[in-house]
Design brief:
Strand order of the largest sheet: 1-2-3-4-5
Distance between the termini: 41 Å
Strand content: 25-35%
Shape: globular
Mean pLDDT: 96
Order of helices and strands: EEHEHEHHEH
Helix content: 40-55%
Number of strands: 5
Largest sheet: 5 strands, mixed
Length: about 120
């Protein structure tokens, strides 16, 4: 099985989700469980740091689509940071830059939340 790990930390009221390894059909349920938990805890402002993500498949992308509406309805969002060119190209190919915000650095995404 491919390597996968998620670490969550909070910075200034923003949940930083660090994703490591391969986000695919086998690992997407773990990401779904995390988003469900964050929403249950009313933590709607999420930044996903993909610096250590090696691969994302359609099931992984689907997780973000499944939760974005609920997060936005509650004043939150999902912002992505630190994507490699190969991972960004997958997001870009599927039109994600139209729907989501992407930042080079995690700090930029957190600051965007704090600005309102």
């Amino acid at each position: 099985m491919a390597e996968f790990n998620i670490e969550v930390q909070e910075k200034e009221g923003v949940q930083i989700v660090n994703v490591l390894g391969f986000l695919d059909a086998h690992t997407a349920p773990q990401m779904e469980d995390l988003f469900t938990k964050l929403i249950e805890e009313k933590k709607y402002r999420i930044t996903v740091n993909l610096e250590r993500l090696n691969y994302i498949g359609s099931a992984g992308l689907g997780v973000f689509m499944a939760f974005i509406e609920t997060l936005r309805e509650n004043g939150g969002d999902i912002k992505f940071t630190n994507l490699s060119e190969s991972v960004y190209s997958v997001f870009d190919l599927l039109g994600f830059p139209v729907l989501f915000e992407f930042y080079k650095e995690e700090k930029e995404a957190v600051e965007k939340y704090l600005q309102g």
